[in-house]
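Structure in, sequence out. Go:
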């Protein structure tokens, strides 16, 4: 983008945020978008994305955090220079109850309201039992991610074990909640919505049981429940009764890397309500970050330590024979969690709630593959230096996942959501050259983009040969899919809808 676009005031950006973080309508039948510009001839295929589509239930109960909304799955199909979208709500138990006017479960930061102490007691009892794997006390609102799961099927996920649903990848119809074969010896109600998809299509993921620890497992796709999990490793946690919040993890074909940040679930606050605290976590800034490197072939675990930090997301895990390397969007502390409260996200410049989004910078985490005397993990800054273009906030990192095809042992380029001009949300997209710490930035003033995705050009000859796509919203509330040249970050096309498609979280 030009300097004038990058330096433009925030203007009506808050109107875009209010639209993107509001309600969406279902589009059961594909709707064609108007393409302004020209899409590459080679761009063809389907993109699925999951994310919150409703922040208020039928009874008027209002959710308070970006992570609270009820899930809606978006499908975007590219073919012959044309684009179609469809979108449907995930038919979870939480969504069905909300549609009928009842908040059945506590969501990330919003608890149900009750007219009596008995109602509150029942909610607490159900949540306590759900947290230890008995009953259904934790939400099944699968609103965070959607991944491929076999032939023409996708798996919608959230961070509870009960929040996993099979979705028809063509019609977006919710097929069923994914259940597991009983008795596999891996109890747990807390998990991640970011499984690592292995080359054979199997999912690598973990589940945590309060008081017991973490189980890393492999699960192969099924068309119907139940699914079967295979234990890979058990990992001891620093505080089993206050487990770390691990939103994502990294994996190669040979190893998994679990980052046990010193942000702990406060189980009493999670179960009984927030009280005066904004989120159900405790930050232990004087405790280290523990990095667990798991060898997938035999489950061996080596643990390293780094200073306290926090990250939501990773990208570009790779090995060079000596180390596993991965890029993370790393924060010094978890202030960003509070920054994603809806009153802050929707605030206009000048309003008391409007504050710049906390810095999350790209860092390379490197962990030795073999335990040896003196071996240690490192974390290296790769974002541009402070004050340079592309410095500051970077989130939703992505890379060219076909980097192996170039015969390289390193990943050079990372694309991400970015923030400029003191924005309270990401309002730009950035390409970071991690070798020389420079960046190229795209911004359309007043618009709010979501997670970017890199699509490589078939038979491409360079790591950055492809396009970068993201769903954006403007002040009029209408969405558009922007398609950029991933090398130059110049806009190639804007695929414009006449409806709101929602901010969204993650897709594939």
């Amino acid at each position: 983008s030009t300097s004038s676009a990058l330096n433009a005031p925030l203007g009506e950006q808050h109107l875009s945020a209010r639209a993107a973080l509001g309600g969406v309508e279902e589009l059961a039948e594909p709707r064609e978008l108007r393409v302004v510009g020209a899409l590459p001839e080679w761009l063809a295929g389907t993109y699925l994305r999951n994310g919150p589509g409703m922040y208020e239930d039928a009874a008027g109960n209002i959710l308070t955090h970006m992570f609270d909304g009820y899930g809606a799955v978006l499908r975007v199909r590219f073919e012959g220079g044309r684009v179609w979208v469809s979108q449907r709500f995930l038919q979870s138990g939480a969504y069905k109850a909300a549609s009928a006017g009842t908040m059945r479960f506590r969501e990330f930061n919003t608890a149900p309201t009750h007219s009596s102490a008995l109602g509150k007691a029942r909610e607490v009892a159900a949540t306590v039992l759900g947290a230890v794997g008995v009953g259904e006390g934790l939400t099944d609102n699968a609103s965070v991610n959607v991944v491929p799961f076999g032939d023409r099927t996708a798996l919608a996920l959230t961070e509870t074990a009960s929040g996993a649903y099979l979705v028809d990848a063509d019609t977006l119809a919710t097929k069923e909640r994914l259940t597991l074969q009983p008795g596999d010896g891996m109890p747990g109600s807390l998990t991640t919505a970011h499984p690592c998809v292995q080359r054979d299509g199997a999912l690598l993921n973990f589940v945590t049981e309060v008081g017991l620890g973490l189980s890393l497992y492999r699960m192969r796709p099924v068309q119907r429940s139940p699914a079967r999990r295979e234990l890979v490793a058990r990992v001891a946690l620093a505080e089993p009764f206050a487990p770390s919040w691990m939103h994502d993890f990294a994996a190669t074909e040979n190893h998994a890397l679990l980052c046990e940040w010193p942000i702990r679930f406060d189980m009493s606050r999670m179960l009984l309500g927030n009280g005066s605290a904004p989120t159900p976590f405790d930050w232990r800034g004087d405790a280290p970050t523990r990095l667990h490197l798991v060898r997938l072939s035999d489950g061996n675990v080596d643990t390293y330590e780094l200073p306290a930090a926090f990250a939501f997301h990773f990208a570009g895990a790779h090995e060079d024979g000596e180390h596993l390397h991965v890029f993370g969007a790393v924060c010094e502390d978890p202030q960003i969690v509070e920054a994603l409260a809806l009153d802050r996200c929707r605030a206009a410049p000048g309003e008391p709630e409007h504050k710049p989004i906390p810095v999350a910078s790209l860092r390379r985490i490197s962990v030795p593959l073999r335990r040896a005397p003196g071996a240690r993990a490192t974390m290296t800054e790769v974002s541009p230096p402070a004050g340079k273009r592309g410095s500051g906030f970077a989130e939703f990192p992505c890379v060219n996942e076909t980097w192996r095809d170039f015969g390289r042992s390193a990943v050079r380029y990372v694309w991400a959501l970015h923030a400029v001009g003191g924005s309270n949300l990401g309002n730009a997209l950035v390409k970071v050259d991690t070798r020389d710490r420079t960046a190229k930035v795209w911004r359309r003033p007043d618009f709010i983009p979501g997670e970017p995705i890199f699509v490589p050009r078939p038979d491409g000859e360079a790591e950055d040969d492809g396009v970068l796509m993201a769903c954006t919203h403007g002040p009029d509330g209408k969405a558009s899919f922007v398609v950029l040249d991933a090398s130059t970050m110049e806009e190639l096309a804007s695929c414009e809808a006449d409806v709101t498609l929602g901010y969204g979280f993650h897709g594939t």
